[in-house]
Amino acid sequence: MNTPINKPGHKGLGHVFKAFGYSMKGLKAAIKYEEAFRQELILLIILLPLGLWLGNDGVERALLVGSLLLVLIVELINSAIEAVVDRVGIEQHELSGRAKDIGSAAVFLALMNVLLIWGLVLWGHFCS
Cα dist. 68→26, 32, 40, 74, 85 in Å? Predict the structure, then answer.
């Protein structure tokens, strides 16, 4: 069994600050290099206030806003998968294509989740 490697200097509150810095670096990279992430971020900026306004209660607001945040989370994971696959090699490989396709499918499902949640909440508001 492998023994975990302890990283020196990455304990306690210092670890939290380091992790935060890495997270901000990742968000900046996604904004700079990932067109789909930028588009989905714009969608969030537009729809977030609308979701907070349309939600009748905390649960509806959480569903509307949370579904939008989920798209960004899944897009970040998809972008990370694509970056790793591209880093490994430029040659075509079935598994590389499959990994990218599966990541793309995850983003698609997250977007369908937004449509479903927003559709159901709006249906309840305007068709009841």
Answer: 19, 20, 8, 10, 26
Residues carrying an active site annotation: 75
Q: What is the per-residue pLDDT for 9?
A: 63
User: What domains, with CATH codes, occur in the chain?
Assistant: 35-126 (1.10.287.3610)
- Tell me which DSSP letter residue 20 carries: H
**pTM of the full predicted structure?**
0.87
Residue 6 is predicted with a pLDDT of: 60
Q: Is the dihedral of CA 87, 89, 95, 96 positive or negative?
A: positive
Where the chain has pLDDT below 70, the residues are: 1-10
Q: Is the dihedral of CA 66, 69, 71, 74 positive or negative?
A: negative
